[in-house]
Automatic annotation (TrEMBL):
The keyword Oxidoreductase does not apply. InterPro entries: Acyl_CoA_acyltransferase, Gcn5-rel_NAT, GNAT_dom, GNAT_YJDJ. This is Acetyltransferase. It comes from Corynebacterium doosanense CAU 212 = DSM 45436. Coiled coil: none annotated. The lineage of its organism: Bacteria, Bacillati, Actinomycetota, Actinomycetes, Mycobacteriales.
Length: 96
């Protein structure tokens, strides 16, 4: 996804989704796959980029891509849990 000067990409080798601003890595959402369940366990936005609303588009893209891959999620990360609490349309992704 590219929006204005923001790009979210899936770094499969690094098991994370990365958000870049003007080509500079601004943050990431890391995960560990356990079969068909993707455990989002750490989300970080670099200090220089905080307060710019980057975590929501990062997490949204990561969850959309995870849904497309046919996986469910475990929201171990508080940022992902917070996102889910505000975006009920993603609740069906949470593994039971």
């Amino acid at each position: 996804m590219t929006e204005n000067n923001r790009t979210v990409r899936h770094d499969e080798a690094g098991s994370r989704y990365v958000i870049e601003v003007d080509g500079t890595e601004a943050g990431f959402a890391a995960y560990t796959d356990h079969g068909d369940v993707r455990d989002f366990n750490h989300t970080v936005v670099s200090e220089d980029f905080r307060g710019q609303g980057l975590s929501s588009p990062l997490i949204r893209e990561a969850l959309d891509d995870t849904r497309s891959a046919g996986k469910t999620i475990t929201p171990s990360c508080s940022a992902v849990e917070n996102f889910l609490s505000k975006n009920e349309e993603y609740q069906d992704l949470v593994a039971q």
